[in-house]
Structure formats: C-alpha cells, structure tokens
Design goal:
By secondary structure, the chain is mostly helical. It contains nine helices and three strands; from the N terminus they run H-H-H-H-H-H-H-E-E-E-H-H.
Length: 201
C-alpha cells in the first residue's frame, strides 16, 4: 500500500509544472517542494538513523523534520522527484507502527494535492487503517488520541465508527485529515461533535 501511494504521487508530480512546486502546501510554512522532500527523507529513514537524528536535533521533532527536508531537497523539483523515485521501493522505517507509513503517504499526499487541485481516490482500506492508527496515537507523536477522546467518528463511505461521544461524520479521508490537524477538511464534516473537534485542532 505504501509503495502504491508513492508511485501514485510520483505520477501526479511528473505532470506538474515546475513553477507549482513553490506553492504553499497544507503543512504550515512548507511548500509543495518541501513536503516532497520530507517524503524522500522519511522513505530513506531507518530505525537507527531516526534515533540518531532525533538526538542530534535535541529531541525536537520539528527541528529534525526541518533538517530532513534540507537534506533531501534537491536543487530543482526534478532532482527532488528523482530522489523520490529512487527511494520509492524502500522498506526501511523509523521506530513506529508500519501503518504510520500509510499515514505519511496519504496525509502528505493530500498536503500536496489539495492546494494544487489534484484529486486521488485512495484505497478505502488504506484510509481506514491510517485513521485507526491516528486516533490511538498520542498527540505528542503526531496522533490524535487526546483530540478525539470524547468524540465518535463515523465514516460515511466506510464501515467505521470509532470512539464515544458527540458524533462527527463524513468521508473517511476527511476524518483522517481533520484529526491530523488539516482544518480544510472540516468543511467536509458534519455532526454535533464538529465544533468540539474544530476547537481541539
């Protein structure tokens, strides 16, 4: 699933005009080019390399990510894209659940695609697995466990209902993006728990 998402993103980027790589992504302060570089960096990351890099960044995840983008970003969009091609088949991973790779590819895929007006129909299983991981992962590790602690998430396009409390409903992909703190996805959601979810992110 991870390799399929990488291949799909490469296909979309191959058709993208180079000037659009400088457009803002859904990630605060990162351009489309920066997010692609981040995906290159995470695809290359090993368990030991992640721990060593985190120590060098004084256990600051944001600093570690910024250094990774700087390291993986090429001098041109085409150079960065070629680096993504070279890393796409890798199976290395940081010390995290394997489904975290799916979260990376899908959420960051949307960070790139949505501002550019590119649509992708993600495999439902991949989105559901990513959402299940996000809601059980602590916020300190990039998850949403605390955010959704008193909310029930119900997917309108999948057999999925998670949690207890006021309901938030909508497409599984939009639920995933919302709990990953992408506020743009809130427009796709509805329900009595929506205000609380919006306040939490």
């Amino acid at each position: 699933m991870v390799h399929a998402e990488r291949a799909a993103l490469i296909g979309d980027l191959e058709r993208l005009d180079e000037g659009r790589w400088d457009e803002p992504s859904l990630c605060a302060e990162w351009t489309v080019h920066d997010v692609v570089a981040h995906l290159v960096d995470t695809a290359r990351t090993t368990r030991l390399g992640f721990l060593a890099g985190l120590a060098r960044a004084w256990f600051d995840f944001d600093r570690q990510n910024a250094r990774g983008v700087e390291r993986a970003r090429g001098a041109s969009p085409q150079e960065t894209l070629e680096r993504l091609r070279q890393a796409a088949a890798r199976t290395s991973t940081p010390p995290a659940p394997l489904d975290s790779r799916l979260v990376e590819e899908i959420v960051h895929g949307e960070d790139i695609r949505r501002p550019l007006g590119i649509a992708r129909s993600y495999p439902g299983d991949a989105v559901v697995r990513s959402l299940r991981l996000q809601v059980r992962t602590p916020a300190s590790f990039g998850g949403a466990r605390e955010i959704v602690a008193h909310t029930r998430l119900t997917a309108s396009d999948a057999d999925l209902s998670i949690g207890e409390g006021p309901e938030v409903s909508g497409p599984a992909l939009s639920l995933l993006l919302a709990v990953s703190r992408r506020r743009v996805a809130l427009d796709d959601l509805d329900g009595p728990g929506l205000a609380a979810l919006a306040g939490a992110i």
